[in-house]
Amino acid sequence: MTLSRRSLLKMTAATVSLSVALPAFAQAIDELVIAYNVNLPSWDPTVGPSAVNPTIQGIYQSVFDQFILQQPDLSPAPGLLTDWGWNEDRTQVWMDVRQGVKWHDGSDFTAEDVAWSLARVADPATGSPIQFVWGTLANHRVEGNRVIADVVQFDPTIFKWMYFLTGYVLPKAYYERVGADGFEAAPIGTGPYMVEQYERNAFVRLRANPHYWNGVPEFESVTIRFVTDAASRVAEVESGRSHVTLEIPYEEYDRLRAMPALGGVATPISDIAMIFFNDI
Hints:
The chain is of the alpha+beta class. It has 2 domains: 1-37 and 192-280, D-Maltodextrin-Binding Protein, domain 2 (3-Layer(aba) Sandwich), CATH 3.40.190.10; 65-190, Dipeptide-binding Protein, domain 1 (Alpha-Beta Complex). It is 22% helix and 25% strand. The chain has helices at 25-28, 57-63, 111-122, 131-134, 158-161, 172-185, 230-239, 250-257; strands at 16-20, 31-36, 68-70, 76-78, 81-86, 92-97, 137-143, 146-151, 193-199, 203-208, 221-226, 244-246, 262-266. The protein has a 7-stranded mixed β-sheet, covered by helices on one side. The protein has a 4-stranded antiparallel β-sheet with strand order 5-6-8-7, with helices on one face. A two-stranded antiparallel ribbon has the order 3-4. The longest helix has 14 residues, at 172-185. The N and C termini lie far apart (53 Å).
């Protein structure tokens, strides 16, 4: 069996990953345990440094949905938006919103959530690290099941950002009711998994969303253990304590992959390299 990209919480984003190699792996266990290589500093996928950390996106995409989905070949596909585009003179964008989607608390996902999410990250006060992109749109408004926004500054890549870093939809009514601190304590999204338990710097336990619009996840429960030390991640899978890990040392890869109970994947990835200059 080949585990799907979604069922492994985007584990194919890893340069090198290892997993238990059993023919009927998904059917054999109810809970998948992953030894993850970074901690999760925040549950808000739209603000702060964690929002632009590529490694954390796998966790975010398990709980939240993006405006637009990205296929493994990097092409866009309908997500919470089913269609999108510009008007004829490129002075407005329009976005058709998927119907029949529920938030994890059972409330309806609506076009208001999309308009509010876009307006929120466009506001400099929110602290989005990519506000310079979202701020190219303004006057977000809902017309039936369509969201329309005015183009302040034309950006031909604006829809590409909707399936990239910070391109997530958050619940307007819930967020306004509980506030930022309440959302960190009890986050909800529309994604394939719901947050069941979270201990900072230790683990997060996710439960499958039985009403997920894009198909029920393969695993009923997923525990992501935050194991930042590479040697400890190797020990996690070698001992059987975790079923999957990623970003292991290359010198360990062949040895572990040769073990009968383990399987390994090394794959090219789409990643971001950044160089920062200290001018102080």
